[in-house]
Specification:
The chain is α+β, with helices and mostly antiparallel strands. The chain contains 6 helices and 9 strands, in the order αβββααββααβββαβ. The radius of gyration is 18 Å and the shape is globular. A 6-stranded mixed sheet has the order 4-9-8-7-6-5, with helices on both faces. β1 and β2 form a beta hairpin. Helix content is 29%, strand content 28%. It has 2 domains: 84 residues, no CATH class; 118 residues, 3-Layer(aba) Sandwich (Aminopeptidase).
């Protein structure tokens, strides 16, 4: 639940223990259904309901399956020609291991350079940026926006949002021309230290399973 609480969506609706979210196509996390138990009806009716909901919001149906999903949901989706597109890992870490890097700046609001790197190389970058700004205005939890700067240029960014003693890290990105330089790790360490200084004990980071550096 912490991952859902720390970043809002434009539209959110519950159907039994399934939560539906729509956020203008920003990320799959915010444009998907997360089944966290049984729906209000049998699975086929619930899947039909989900497909209608996504159609109403103009986005493709995406199911995020965790260990909380009904055990036969994956099989039923496969029978309805759904395909697995990504496998993600949820990683947790104590904030006590973090430390501040002198080249990583952390602010309560993202700078223009932070935003520029976030949308770099994205299709429909201007629309993505507008959606991000709107969602940021809706967010009610304290956040820190980290920016690693080398020679006056932003090389890596990341975001941490606090929810009580827990924090969620996301929007980690390194300038493609400077990957594998250790910039992401330095940014992450600073985000951990920032979260610790604000009372968070544990952090969560969600990454794709082929993200070996993470």
């Amino acid at each position: 639940m912490a991952g859902l609480e720390t970043w809002p969506a434009f539209h959110e609706e519950w159907y039994g223990h399934w939560v539906f979210r729509s956020a203008g196509g920003m990320t799959r996390r915010n444009n998907s259904v997360t089944p966290m138990g049984e729906p209000l009806t049998d699975l086929d009716v619930a899947i039909d309901w989900a497909e209608a909901w996504f159609d109403d919001h103009g986005i493709p149906p995406i199911f995020r399956l965790t260990e909380l999903a009904p055990p036969n949901l994956r099989k039923r989706l496969s029978e309805r020609t759904y395909e697995r597109t990504d496998t993600t890992l949820v990683m947790t870490r104590s904030t006590e291991v973090g430390h501040f890097d002198p080249n990583v700046l952390v602010s309560e609001e993202p700078t223009r350079e932070w935003r520029d790197l976030l949308v770099a190389d994205r299709p429909l970058a201007s629309e993505f940026r507008a959606s991000f700004d709107e969602l940021l205005a809706l967010a009610g939890l304290p956040s820190g926006f980290a920016e690693l700067v080398v020679g006056g240029t932003t090389r890596a960014i990341g975001q941490v949002t606090m929810s009580a003693s827990f924090a969620v890290i996301f929007n980690m990105k390194t300038d493609p021309a400077h990957r594998r330089s250790g910039y992401a790790a330095r940014t992450l360490e600073t985000l951990l230290a920032h979260a610790s200084a604000r009372g968070a004990k544990e952090t969560m980071l969600q990454v794709q399973d082929d993200n070996h550096p993470a």
